[in-house]
Amino acid sequence: MDNPPVYSDYHKKRSVSSYSLDYVPPSANLIMNGSTAAKSIQPTVGEHPYTITSSTMSTPNGNGAIVGNGTLGDHFEQDYDPFANRDKSKATTDSGALLHLIKSSLGSGILAMPSAFKNSGLIFGLFGTIAIGTLCTHCIYLLVVCSQVLSKRVKTPSLGFADTAAVAFETGPPRYRGWAPFAREFVNAALFATYYFGNTVYVVLIAASFKQVFDNHVDEQYHWPVQVWILLLALPLVPLGIIRTLKVLVPFSAIATTFIMLGLASTMYFVVTGESFITSAELRSSADYVGAKPLPSVDSRPWIASLSQMPLFFSTVLFAMEGIGTVLPIENSMEHPQRFLKKFGVLNSSMVLVVTLYTVAGFLGYLRFGPFTDGSITLNLPNDVFAELVKIMVALSIMFSYGLQFCVPSEIMWKRLEPVLRRRRELKRKRKGIPSADLPSVVTPPSMDFAYYTMRGSMILGTILIAALVPDLAPFISLIGSIFFSILGLFCPAVIHIITFWSDGTDGGDKRQHNSRFVFWKNILVIIVSLVALVAGTYASMIDIVAFYHGGSGGGAHGGPSAGLNATVASSSHSAV
Fold first, then answer.
1. Hey, is 35 helix, strand or coil?
2. Whether pTM exceeds 0.85
3. How far is CA 38 from the centre of its chain?
4. Among 107, 305, 516, 569, which is most buried by a count of CB atoms within 10 Å?
5. Taking CA 280 as the corner, what is the angle to CA 275 and CA 286, rounded to the nearest 5 degrees?
6. What gap in Å lies between CA 105 and CA 70, rounded to an integer?
7. 565 within 8 A of 480, measured Cβ to Cβ
8. Residues 379-438 pLDDT 10s
């Protein structure tokens, strides 16, 4: 065997603890001064066992030790190009990936940004939002870099979030390799809980928005319960949710982005001018019309809020902006994935736009409404057709992005279910005397598409049924999101980066392949920040839960992590709007 094993084939056959000293490629057993190179390199094989090759070794010195660059590691990583080995038949373009990434980070959470500024102060919120957006972008960068490097290291075209975490530990320091299975399962569980139950809350939000608008225009006898609206959503959500290919989802992301941008632009027009763009001439000429009021001065609002309110600001911005679960699927589906991390590539371009919109919405919204700012800025709009249009656009935006958000939990479930279904199918074929589908003679093995789409459709119906049974689920899902988004968005990328580039610096080589002291302590700082966010988000979500069930105003009153979401759902239940 001249090359290291391919990860997808090799890792299934060996335990985690065997990814080290017992595997030495025959190409490393070169005769040097009468002895094999394997003897001289054996103490460091455990660091990166996949990347040992003679071309990375320099001529030994008189004592038989390796000199020169001293590196045992990056030849195979340089030879293997994961981008060239990906299936590009259904790849997305750069613009498609940009739309997906914008939509994954730009959602209804932007409507809670004015409430976040109320908990931070006007100027502190301005710079704080930029800082948190930069931190989120940096952590996404860390995760994608690790995924690309580890794909080269284990010779596989692409890795998802959970696989990236597992492979980082499997190929990292020997004493941490036993943590690889836990890392994979932990990330999968966090992703599944966050996105699956998050989609359940989205179902409630969409149904509540449609119910509000419908009830305003019909007699009370036709006011259907919100559960009826939730069940009716099965008609559009099942076809949208079963779409597997991200390339096919690009138009829906474009529609969703258009709707959320129109809704936000309409809201910001009212915020800036003090009136809606559909104010009628009759209303303008009436004696009751007050007219547009200019924005208050910056000095009229507190620049910095009290320290006790800061956790609410941080958690609201972080959890509204975070969309790390869909980043690697988007990058893995790109036609030119090498452009994802460029200076003006997909990641930076999308996050600059997202952070700018969040900052402007929060700043202007709080400047306009001040202490009267509600958890969702839509609650500050006048109760008229204008507000209804905004709510419908936000609801449609969420509906058309349902399929993108649903890709994460469905793929996690399919990885668990597919092997079981294949084994059952092989047993049936064996009983009937049909050759195994895995034999070389079987040119076209039976497709698993029917089973996949059946599973996905069942999971979509599951979100609808849960939403119908427990329409007040939002505060508890906010708690789940608060816990796991701080871990997924900040903690995991920093830990994965530390383990991926683990080195004590004694083996020489390219310093960029190792953790410098600065990089190491920077990652430790990110980990500390994530733990603070975990505590702050949990605290804010508990306030949401208490307020929702005892105060009757929902989480929006406190500006928690899902303040905009909870406020809108709560308002539908209590007729606040």
1. strand
2. no
3. 43
4. 569
5. 90
6. 43
7. no
8. 777 777 888 888 898 889 888 888 888 888 998 899 888 888 888 888 877 777 766 655
